[in-house]
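quick one, 124 residues, struct below
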Amino acid sequence: MKQHSPQFLNLVNQAKKRIQELSADTLKNKIDNHDEIYLIDVREDHEWSIGHIPTAIHIGKGIIERDIEKTIPDSQAEIVVYCSGGFRCALVADSLQNMGYSNVYSLDKGSQGWIDAGYKLTQS
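---
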């Protein structure tokens, strides 16, 4: 497991107080039920190419604030963001909420939580 700096963890913990998280099982149910959600992988390009959650689109954390309105103009749309461990996506969810998106969720434990729950990643 990665060792994150205390300041980064503090930033993430503060963001997690303001956002909603959902479990891998809840996300899997949403995917299986064909719920209208935007599932966004916010990891780096090289992480995306290794494998991602089925139905996800890729918008890296470094550009999501710049590009989100072009991809998802509806600020009421249901959005689920994830990274590898649930830290970066918490920051992204907080940022999107600050931009006016009102139905944003962060995947608890990220893609690792997805894998730990027994679900597979896919490759494009």
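The two ends are 26 Å apart (CA to CA).
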